[in-house]
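Regression test attached.
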Amino acid sequence: MVKQQPNWSPYDNNGGSCVAIAGADYCVIAADTRMSSGYNILTRDYSKICKLHLIYQHQHNKQMSCPAMAQLLSNTLYYKRFFPYYAFNVLGGLDNEGKGCVFTYDAVGSYERVGYSSQGSGSTLIMPFLDNQLKSPSPLLLPAQDAVTPLSESEAVDLVKTCFASATERDIYTGDRLEIVVLNADGIRREYMELRKD
Amino acid sequence: MSYMDSKMSQHGLIGSESDSQRTLYPYVTGTSVVALKYKDGILMAADMGGSYGSTLRYKTVERMKPIGKHSLLGASGEISDFQEILRYLDELILYDNMWDDGNSFGPKEVHNYLTRVMYNRRNKFNPLWNSLVLGGVKNGQKYLGMVSMIGVNFEDNHVATGFGNHLARPILRDEWHENLSFEDGVKLLEKCMRVLLYRDRSAVNKLQIAKITEEGVTISPPYSLKTFWGFSAFHNPTVGAEGSW
């Protein structure tokens, strides 16, 4: 008696890439807006960036800090450890001191605070480029050195645009449009850039 | 184990109680649904075929239905699951009406509900085997969205299920624009449906086009598309390759 293999998968890979970069007093989060399935494009205009804080604010009577959100996301993912959310996340925000704060995750909730990260189908193309441009200190150094970039906000945004323009050339699942969200002391700003549609 | 038991377990038919209830494959299926936003609302088209594997078994299946006052649902995939979804939505709309508070579910709410239903079923490994298209207008706002059988959902200016994704979507990407008139919208949909009729083996030449605007839903009576088969290449197909397979 052979165990019957399932002929239907509960998962689909909808592709796409996302990036976040932490600065001294800002955080840049960006993702493309293409949603694919196999070799089809389902839509060119799907936002992969969400704001998460309202429920916490109502219950705790204060804004949700980035490290608190990071733990929540990790727990949410690990809760489904044996039937995972097939999602690769990057969390960006400002910590309690107003410094940029980026956390990167795997599909089951393992997370780490970093100075910058990318996830998704284009991450293999984007991450080495970010490593080169942002000259991150080695994670093996003691005492741990902060990986928050000294770049200005506009320089970081330009860097992100370059990343996606390059990733779009070679990754078929990345393209259409780039959505960039910048968080700083003044609030949240959104910017868009057209990418190649092929 | 007895002979019968061992045979049945080989086919995966014996298992725990829950296993015998899961959907494994669809039986009676509908093919593509195509929809687009136009000036006054949404236009949606679907043929009336229900295939049983490779047999075109049923030719009067209505695959588009109005939901509440503001929405229109089209489905492809397993017809019995579509009928089940209509029962769920009936109950949803009933409860909405019972509030009697002057508010009624618009397309966004119905789409959200359907996404939750489809996603929760896939979590239990017992999916409703459908791709759903949900369109509607409420308070002047047009809405067109899609949900797949695993709960992937999105909105766009034009959507299509099944083969429509491959054959109709490229046409729509090229020729759709904002504020299409009703006549242009219908012409565009018919162009898509004609290509599907020529190229999708499970398409039948009997279709309905549905329109939803602020005023309400109209589903056209069934009609057929004109087709042309008089290409010279069809008259003597083997002329270039006599004796070939």
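Expected vs. actual: identical. The longest helix of chain B spans residues 79-99.
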